[in-house]
Amino acid sequence: WKVLAQEAEALVKAKLDEPLVLWLAAWAIWESHEGYTECRDCLTKASRHKLLKNYPSVLAAHIQEQFNECRRTPNPDSIAKTNEERFKHMMKCAADPEVYKPEEDEILFSDVEFVFSTVHVTKHGDELRQFCETPHFTPWLREMLLGSLENRIAWMNRGGGYAGTVKDEGWKKFEEHQTLARPHFIKAWELRPDRPQAAASMIDLVKCGNGGSGETLRLWFDRATAAQIDYYSAYYQMLWALRPRWGGSLDQMKALYCATAVLDRHEAGIALALRRTLDYLENDADDIHFVLSQEPLKSVVLGSTRALAESDHVYRRWQREWRLADLGLMAWVAGDYETAYNTFQEVPAPFPRQTRRRLNLKANETDVRGLSAIYAFGLNAEWEAAEDAYSRRELDEALQVFQDLSARFQGEPPALLLQRMAACKFEKAFATGKWVPLRAFPDMADWYHCSGFWKGLSTGTLVNTGHDGPAFVLHNGRVGANFELAGLYEIKNAPASSHGLSIMLGYHRTSGSEDWVGCAHWGTSVTGADSSLLRRIYQTKAPHVTPPVNGRIWRFHILCREGVLTYRLNHRDILVDYPVTDEDVEGFEMRDDSIIGFCHHIFRQDSETHFRLMGIRRLDPAARPEAANPATVEALRKGFADQCRRSVADLNAVTLVEAGLLAGELNRAKKTAEAGKISAFAALLKQDT
User: Fold this and answer.
1) Which CB contacts under 8 angstroms, 24+ apart, belong to 266-271?
2) Which of 661, 665, 619, 611 is nearest to 446 (CA)?
3) What's the predicted TM-score (pTM) here?
4) Predicted confidence (pLDDT) at residue 286 exceeds the cutoff of 80
5) Rounded to an integer, what distance in angstroms lies between the CA atom of residue 120 and that of residue 68?
6) 34: three-class secondary structure by DSSP
7) Which of 262, 294, 268 has its CA nearest to residue 281?
8) Which of 350, 480, 491 lies closest to 427, judged by CA?
């Protein structure tokens, strides 16, 4: 893909101005680049190109398909609009014999399968039925189209929920339409048993109990793979049928993986089927680490993953870099830490993007590499003792064991140990209730680098370099539910209307998932900026406020007491005493072991976001005073005056924090005269307060 992208970009730069070239360039760029912009730029040019009308409209349909795949955010309205455009383009050309000749009926079926989605069948049912019966279509194609239409109608009546949620009428219609679909698929298979599509479709009907007498999942799976050994849909349908929710079991899913792996085939469909099986095992198992650590699955998974990494297959050689990283990752999950450690020695940091897509906030690269090294050298007991002490908040004990562990490594110890030591030191300072600076130095020891491109500078500034995609970073010290946080971030090299940031609060993991709330701002083309509270990356019912746009600099101040937030941005109140644990935020839990961080769903390509002058301090939990009920004008005046004094005191407190942090930064930069002026100003401010 990298070579294709380079060649495609060269053609575009050489002004080979053709929509087909632009679409292919977008495809190659999407598969090889980190960001979205270049891909979407090519697609936009292709979709608006004056020569697009000279091509069959199938090209326009493919362009719309690619638009959805590389969409930055899953906006339902935008996706629906794009899907409708794609449908119109495809239906315009699908029945044209000049575009799809009779001998290309298999290609046509592949291109139009998407039109049988629930949305399209609901909206265009009559048009689709007429299309399925197009006279010049081959008999095989007509049968496949009619069977697909009936099966979609069946699923529309049933719905996609668990069996207990389906009503009696839904079951009746489901059986009725799958029974109507069956003879079409049977006829299509009889016409062309050398093609896999009909047999793969029959797996779905048999799974649901609507196959014929004597028909089994294995019968139709064998027929599909006999026609085409690497037909992905056959493996996908079989895998779904073997999941516990459909009466299967984890053992049957593992057996399918092993049976597929021993084929020792490296075609794309089989490689994807193996990967998808592991994904579903992770979804359905309580502990994927335990499942993959058991023989014979462990040996089979590592063997098949290694075979893909070392394959000389023409479609696998270019994947070797990330397939090797996948081998290390699978070895780590399966508990073969020596293989994981040795493999990671050949894989530069960060992991290739394809492997990073398999990781998320639950297991970042530092954890994977660090634990592989610790366990590979047999330091399990020491590590577990240190982690136990840390979980009990015996920080001195934990710090000592982490330091002893680090000394056991020749050269630089794993970054994971540096992070744990930094967390212990931070939490000891945080417990004093004094302000603790939040800094990021080049070793990034104080931060969990989850995704995106983050670095620390020698000045202690945290920097994100945008790659036109999402990025997450977490501070590794536990702060709980009572703290005061202040600082600033500066956005460089990006349009203000297209950038933003979310300050992650209360981040914690529960049952394999993660949760947090975000004090966020994002750019808008109308007001310049909008700010509110997010639940993960989604908006809540919290009020939206337009903060003052102070150039590229955003100063934040957050007070959190037992999950009640006050959030100020550029000295404007966004939230005041807002409870994040109420029904508006779906009962969010601000736990004692929660941490903070920063994220955004899209950091623009080549933008830089600098975080400076940040500090945090622990607050004592305090009972919230009952609201006063003034009955006189004098009481109202007094209440207003008290509120004004509190607001001034809060602003002075924030200014003092910023002054102290700035003075420290100037002293480190040896700008003592400027630092002295800032300190003198802070001293005067203290006298006033």
Assistant:
1) 266/307, 266/308, 266/311, 266/313, 266/315, 266/316, 267/229, 267/230, 267/313, 267/315, 268/230, 268/232, 268/315, 269/230, 269/231, 269/232, 269/235, 270/229, 270/230, 270/232, 270/235, 271/308, 271/316
2) 611
3) 0.79
4) yes
5) 16
6) coil
7) 294
8) 480
pLDDT > 90? residue 191: yes
Q: What does the mean pLDDT of the chain come to?
A: 87
Q: What is the pLDDT of residue 525?
A: 58
- Which of residues 429 and 493 earns the better pLDDT score? 429
Write the pLDDT tens digit of every residue in 450-461.
888 899 999 999
CB 257 within 8 A of CB 297: yes
DSSP class of residue 500 equals E
Nearest Cα residue to 69 out of 133, 26, 104, 118? 26
Amino acid code (one letter) for 431: A
Enumerate residues 6+ apart whose C-beta is below 8 A from 367.
Answer: 416
Bridge partner residues of 569 (DSSP): 556, 572
User: What letter does residue 413 receive in the DSSP assignment?
Assistant: P
> With helix as H, strand as E and coil as C, how does 78-135 read?
HHHHHHHHHHHHHHHHHCCCCCCCHHHHHHHHHHHHHHHCHHHHHHHHHHHHHHHCCC
Sequential DSSP letters for 292-315 = HHSTTHHHHHHHHHHHHHH---TT
Does 414 have pLDDT greater than 70? yes
Query: pLDDT tens for residues 306-337?
Result: 998 888 765 556 678 888 999 999 999 999 99
Contacts for 94-99: CB closer than 8 Å, 24+ residues apart? 94/58, 94/131, 95/131, 95/134, 95/137, 96/56, 97/136, 99/56, 99/58
Cα-to-chain-centroid distance, residue 480: 25
Provide the total of helices (H) and of strands (E) in the chain, helices listed first.
25, 15
Give the pLDDT of residue 361.
Answer: 41
Q: What does the alpha-carbon distance between residue 488 and residue 611 come to, in Å, rounded to a whole number?
A: 6
> What's the order of all strands across the beta sheet hosting 447-451?
447-451, 469-475, 595-603, 500-510, 513-522, 530-535, 538-539
